[in-house]
Amino acid sequence: MDLLWDRGPMEVKDAHKALASRDITLNTIQSTLKRLFEKSLVDRVKRSHAYIYGARTERAQFQREVLGEVVDRLLTGESDVMLHAFVEITERAGEDQLARLERMIALRRAALQRGKG
Questions:
Q1: Separation of alpha carbons 72 and 35, rounded Å
Q2: Which residue, 12, 18, 35, 61, is most buried by CB atoms nearer than 10 A?
């Protein structure tokens, strides 16, 4: 997915060339892209003899969706443990990330307040 997000839509052969340093076979890349298509994670368009594969969503949207699914699964009752872990992970990323989280929370609260008014 990173390759498609970074470089845009491409054929299997182009993906294979781009990943040459990883020693992955063309067949493996082709089957992986096919599975991603079957899971609706990538789109594909037939051009001439080959498919062109491209990411279905932007990276940030994909990350939000995956994180949302994980959080939904973790929130089976008590959310304190999950919230505590999230704050600790954010803190480990650095003081600036913790401050950023605080600003995001403040902005969301302000937006909610405006919506009530």
A1: 25
A2: 12
